[in-house]
Specification:
With 291 residues, the chain is α/β, with parallel strands linked by helices. Helices cover 63% and strands 8% of the residues.
Length: 291
Amino acid sequence: MRLFLLPVSTRQSLIYCQRLNKQIPSETTFVDKITTRASDIWLKWEKAESGWKKKVTSYGNKILQTIPHEEWGLKSIPPLSKRRKEDEFTGRNNVDVVFPGSIIEERGVEEALRRYAGDERQDFHKKRMWGSIIGMPVAAPLALVPVIPNLPFFYLVFRAWSHWRARSGSRHVRFLLDNRLIKLTTSRKLDLAYTEASLDVSMIQLDQAADQALREKFAESSAIRMDTEAEKMLLTPSAGRSIADIVQVPELEEHIHRAVKQIEKALRAKREWKEEKEDLERVNKDAERRR
């Protein structure tokens, strides 16, 4: 498998796993079969032109977009089975971590991976998983309502499974880090993609920049280091398609778009809260002067 570590802002990064070897039927677990079946049903409901199925999927997709991008990223990492552990130990399954070296240094990549694999992250998903499981018996009686499926119950089942998968992904990353089984790999294509996103130029323009000085100028312009004092966005929602095309991983587009939207919203709320706090402090100071 291959991990992508993509900075979305100067303090937050997205993680995504590209599984290079598809599972053969004998390796597919019961949980994988159930998950595939549920996905197929959901896709059929989405194709409905009208009715409650269309409304459920439309509203459900909006809820899914609120699930933190960290959880989606960790879910993409397969659980650590006994066979996978042996393959990674023996080197049969190499694990590369691909990242844009002009944006984040190797130390920053390792720190980001440690956060994804940390006890705090695993405890968070464990608590949320058990919270969803505890809520299932409460929602179960709603199955007595005719015609419409017990959506609250199925949502809790999904959330329990989602947190379990995210925690499993986190534990897998911890295993790779603890046993030094990760190979950090910079990607020039990703560097160019971030340059394109920051300068609003096309990849064709960058590739055609044969002059070395011009290439260095592009690289310097995009070299925004992580952990700066004020958190800033490095990507826009539209950058997802460009990066997904460059690395030839179509699934990345949705993950990047979701992460950018979530982080932009959080930064905007933080900025508005700071402005309101400053306004309140200014009003209080003016009131004190008038006394």
